[in-house]
Amino acid sequence: MTKIKRETDDTNVYYTVTWSRLMKVDKYDIINKVPSMAGMMELYFMDEKKKLVKFHFCRTWLSGIRATLRMITDPDLITNEDQKKILREKECYFRYSVSDSDGDMQDLLFFFSELFYEGKSVLKDSGRFRKIFVKEKSADKIITI
């Protein structure tokens, strides 16, 4: 199951993020196959060397994964010009993981943004734990840590 699991030892947190299979961005597949639950998602494009490149990641709470994915993968709905160009010109993919905790997603978004932006993220963690540790599980063997 594509779910985020949390374990703690009073001061530290240990997350296991189990990702969905990677799926090609297609509005009909998103509508029919993606849950409308809260969670996190990542967007990738295929570069010229046939390598997947992550270009967007986010969490969603109230609107759910399905609605958020529909919005952020439709070039006619988004305002970010770089993302719009990627969606129009590249073969794009997504994956997601379900969560029932906004605080957990805040910690994970902070953790992944620190990696993605090489320690220059402006996001904050939830403040509940001293250190955050993350393990990813992916049937597609796409591990970003």
Descriptors for this entry?
145 residues, alpha+beta, GIY-YIG endonuclease, three-stranded mixed beta sheet, 4 helices, 31% strand, globular
Topology:
Elements lengths: L3 E5 L3 E7 L4 E2 L2 H7 L5 E8 L5 E9 L3 H9 L8 H9 L2 E7 L3 H15 L14 E7 L8
Parallel strand pairs: 2-7
Antiparallel strand pairs: 1-2, 3-6, 4-5, 4-6
Give the low-pLDDT segments: none
Tell me the CATH architecture of the domain at 22-122: 3-Layer(aba) Sandwich
Percent helix: 25-40%
CATH class of the domain at 22-122: Alpha Beta
Strand order of the largest sheet: 3-6-4-5
The largest pleated sheet is described as: 4 strands, antiparallel
Radius of gyration: 15 Å
Distance between the ends? 20 Å
H and E string:
EEEHEEHHEHE
Strand content: 25-35%
Number of DSSP helices? Answer: 4
* Number of distinct beta strands: 7
The backbone outline, from C-alpha atoms, is globular
How is the CATH topology of the domain at 22-122 named?
GIY-YIG endonuclease
